[in-house]
């Protein structure tokens, strides 16, 4: 229990550090949000109107005063309102976050279902035809950016073969079949990099586990190959695989921006890009903190899974 509390404490400290760094960094970026909001067609706004808007938005307050108000709002779960349309940031995040998470977890499930069995099989048949082909394909997938893969999938499956929709979004409750069809290509695009990394890590971890003394001992005692694989190989090989999975799940949270843009998926990317362009501090901070918080939560869950797989970790 003490180990779990320490991990939670570390995660909370990291969350505060991330929030502080994001807040300070955005306020150091050149550009006046009030001036950008009032600018139309490249025409400079009236200085008096800019000053009035800055005062109304609290941008004239000292930076430490703004920071204190920001932290107080976080403790109450208040992320503030957008500078663009005065819409609550929390409401915007709550609306769009489930769509982004659906995309990420669909891609992660696809990657896990494909990569773990394939990596294990490649390790058990090291040097065979499957191992060589799968390893080459994994290297190729790692080298190709997600926006290139997404564009190629749209070109081949949506434009040429016309078997999949090119992009868009329909709520699951309105049309489940159409929703899943629209989800397929972006989820596959996200899955490609994670599947390649998990395949390589699974293959390497299983090969390492197969060479361990306790595995040879289990075989010498007459344990069946299936029993050796399940009880002694896969269990030990999963720990480094989980480490990579946790790190890349966090990467996927930030990497979905391009995928959502390519497939016109209405997740967090649209308000984030608009907010960055308009220096909408509350919206940018709210979305970045949401992504960072999820990253820390995923890593905390992975730490708990490590401890479940290897009790020695709890004593560290």
TrEMBL record:
**What Pfam families does the entry give?**
BPD_transp_1 (PF00528), BPD_transp_1_N (PF19300)
| UniProt subcellular location | Cell membrane
Positions of transmembrane segments: 12-29, 103-124, 136-160, 180-199, 237-263, 283-309
Main location per the UniProt record? membrane
List the lineage, top down.
Bacteria, Pseudomonadati, Pseudomonadota, Alphaproteobacteria, Acetobacterales
Regarding protein family, the annotation reads: Belongs to the binding-protein-dependent transport system permease family.
Q: How does it sit in the membrane?
A: Multi-pass membrane protein
What protein does this entry describe? ABC transporter permease
Annotated keywords:
Cell membrane, Membrane, Transmembrane, Transmembrane helix, Transport
Gene Ontology terms describing biological process: transmembrane transport
Domain ABC transmembrane type-1: residue ranges = 97-306
Output the Gene Ontology cellular-component terms.
plasma membrane
Protein species of origin: Teichococcus coralli
In terms of superkingdom, the source organism counts as: Bacteria
